[in-house]
Here is the input.
Amino acid sequence: MKYISTRTKNFTPINSAEAILQGLADDGGLFVPESIPKITLDEIKDLVDKNYSQRAVAVLKKFLTDYTEDELFESAELAYDWFDVASKVPLTILVKDEQHKNSPVGVMELYHGNTSAFKDMALQMLPQLMTRALKKVGETKEILILVATSGDTGKAALAGFADVPQTKIMVFYPADGVSKIQKLQMVTQTGNNVNVTAVRGNFDDCQNGVKNIFNNAEIRAELAKSNVKLSSANSINWGRLVPQICYYVASYAEFVSSGSIKLGDTVNVAVPTGNFGNILAAYYAKRMGVPIKKLICASNINHILTDFFKTGVYDRNRDFYKTITPSMDILISSNLERLLYHETNGNTERVKTFMQELNETGKYKINSSLKNRLDKIFYADYATEEETSNLINEVFGNYKYIVDTHTAVAMMVLGKYRRNTKDMSPVMLASTASPFKFTNAVLKALGENVDGVDDFEQLDKLSWKTKKAVPKNLAALSTAKILHENICDKNEMAEQVLKFAAK
Here is the structure.
């Protein structure tokens, strides 16, 4: 399996190890596999009785063919051995009543890793893949991982790469655009090779700054003088995205194992969506052959993706809102580029033109033919802040089950999809973060008064209210020492990178 760029027709294919180390293609495009491998129902049937690592390797070995199966299994075991539940990704089945027993919602709890967010599923695997890639390609330079985060990616990447040999990691986050818990998770991160820097701006400023650094030949040349090479841990890196495909395949096998669906039954998938990586992973699972019918793309009030799928116009020239779902406060969904590549049958010129128009004018428009193709695959809608809060309360009231704000957005949009289409197919719904990461919004949704209650008291209050234990990693933040207080303007990010690389 070789990898090519979304923006160059005759791009020289490279192995997955090279793509993972490089992160972003030299032409500014994203790496994609030359073809999408298939998985049969018989193969999925074989996974029904397997553990998570075995299920993950069944997917990884199809995409990462320059890694041995033993290497992949060892990587998976090391990545997931510390998750706080044996199954790694529990599938909680919600059925409203007997009338709805044939339309269950399987909630994929993707947040049982050490940062309590779905990013752990990929960002504990990526360092394993990257350290092996260094040996495979004979790379002697130090790899500097640059990360832009809207809250969860940063901590998960820091935790994964802290003190990993031959790497440094630098995370940029919007100074006022993450929750207090998310910020504390990052600024208390230990490790001799880590740097955390706040940016005066929003997530898109952070993401654009990182992309500009990657695409700046002068900066890369300056880094080379220090024997440093750039890479990424955002989902623009294929090594970050491919482990996310695994949990859709694994969860389908788990759905079958639970007895809620039969092998071969079609399901829909609902995902709270910001940078488009998580739902793109579901798209790849669908293309591989997992019986997925509709991909339900759920947004918050920064509903740029909803508008794109409904109108065919991607336009980031709009107001930006800070919400109770900060990981979705994004106006530039980078991974959409990969979808455009695949759904234009690899038309790199069109993709390159779209991205140039987005960079120069802030928008682009797809033609009706492409829009019709996407309409068959995706349903898109959004949830308001009030709808999100009401949904948290409703789910807790009906099921005594607690969800975070982002998961609530997916549940609300799923409800809209079912009402609008009358399609009551079983659903796999991505639950992307622990409700304990967003205690203020969750407690308010449950009708609790949080005025004057600090964040750690809120953790205890939510624990008491829901009879659920506070995740250990979050409880430990109350006594963790703040180690990173850097802050910069968005136009100072390159300077900060060069300064950190030289240390």
